């Protein structure tokens, strides 16, 4: 395992880290015992950073992380998020009283005294323009409730706006072979300002595993079923914003990336990690096998210059026009 500095902070995090949306809920059925085994396997492999949120299973993923990391609080870093448990458009959600309450509740579920990275969870751009929530986070940081804070964003515009606030030390973005726009302007600017980049949905909700068919069916409680067209939250959070059938067709055209790299999953993750502006990638998982598959990227060779050019052209000519969700 290799480790990278989280922006200008003192935190050094594993380049392959993990997100816990799937084990919390909204990705189909999960088994808590299997989730705990998977978390243990990741930590055994050197993973020292996990991303979660208060709304993942109504706090369930935070509780699982508390159990999995008991006694390892100094070595295993946790990032969590807030605001989506309420009406994200209501300014009252971002007041000191509200944010403090969210923070205290997460600390209780995580069984920790401090959150390593506290993130605003995809807030509306008007909240970011107002900026008063950052003063609240500054106060919680001074009090020692949080070590650092950042923002999970939906668009490049939102990310650039966040960079205007000096306290923001990390941005969490959707970035993968189907969502390449952030690399042009946002990533270099973030690096210049010492802001870390956490990459979520690196496999485009599973499209980049190459395992789906156009007639694949997802469980009723799986967001890949109920949010395919953005009916519940930003459409970009599901299949990178691509219509499902189009995404499946495009993924088939990318099957070649697996050659010499084990499979498409490892190849897709390698493409991300080869970007020097990236701090870490945070794929999801529901079992030990998926953790091990994602960790396989550590052995996957990088892409050649010709391959990278081919992937860039493919995105610009075949993919970009079909993306929904703000990028």
From TrEMBL:
- Kindly list the GO molecular function terms attached to this UniProt entry: oxidoreductase activity
Where's the NADP-dependent oxidoreductase domain? 16-315
Top-level taxon in the UniProt lineage: Bacteria
Q: Which residues cross the membrane?
A: none
List the InterPro entries: AKR, AKR2_Oxidoreductase, NAD(P)_OxRdtase_dom_sf, NADP_OxRdtase_dom
Instruction: Quote the Gene3D superfamilies the UniProt record gives.
Output: NADP-dependent oxidoreductase domain
Protein known as: Aldo/keto reductase
- Which species does this protein come from? Paenibacillus piri
